Amino acid sequence: MVITNSYFTDNAKILAKYNEVELYDRSRLYNLLEAQNTNEMFNKSVCPKCGADLVIRNGKYGYFYGCESYPKCSFTKNIEGSNNNHNVK
Ligand SMILES: [Zn+2]
Questions:
Q1: Where are any strands of DSSP class E within the chain?
Q2: pLDDT tens digits, residue range 24-70?
Q3: Which pTM value belongs to this model?
Q4: How many independent structural domains does the chain possess?
Q5: Are residues 54 and 39 in the same domain?
Q6: Which residues form the DNA topoisomerase type IA zn finger domain (predicted)?
C-alpha cells in the first residue's frame, strides 16, 4: 500500500496496477480516515462494563451511547462533541 499526501500521476497508477499495489491519494486517504473516525464515533464503541456494543440512543436530552444489552446493563455515555441540550432532528 502506498500513501501520498498529494495525488498520483497516471504513470504511478498504471505502475501500481501492474504491481497490485494499493494507492491512496489525498482524497482517498481523507475518505478512509473519515470513515474510520465515523466508525469510531458511532459503531466501534464497546461497553466497558460488559463488553457488548454501544448503540446510539435518542433520549430526553439528546443522543447518547447506550449499552446494547440494556436493560441488563445500564451503562450510558455522552457522545463527545454533541450538544445534548439541543434537539437534533
Ligand atoms: Zn454493558
A1: 2-3, 23-24, 54-59, 62-67, 76-78
A2: 877 887 787 777 666 555 556 789 999 998 888 888 888 888 999 99
A3: 0.42
A4: 2
A5: no
A6: 46-80
DSSP secondary structure code for residue 5 in this structure = S
**C-alpha 27 to ligand 1 mean position (Å):** 37
Report d(CA 38, CA 4) in Å as an integer: 22
Question: Last residue of some domain: 10, 25, 44?
Answer: 44
Range of the domain at 19: 1-44
Residue 28 Cα to ligand 1 middle (Å): 35
Distance 55 CA to ligand 1 centre (A): 10
Query: Does the pLDDT of residue 87 top 70, yes or no?
Result: no
Site of grid cell 440494556:
70
- The cell 450510558 sits on which residue? 76
On whether both 31 and 51 belong to a single domain, the answer is no
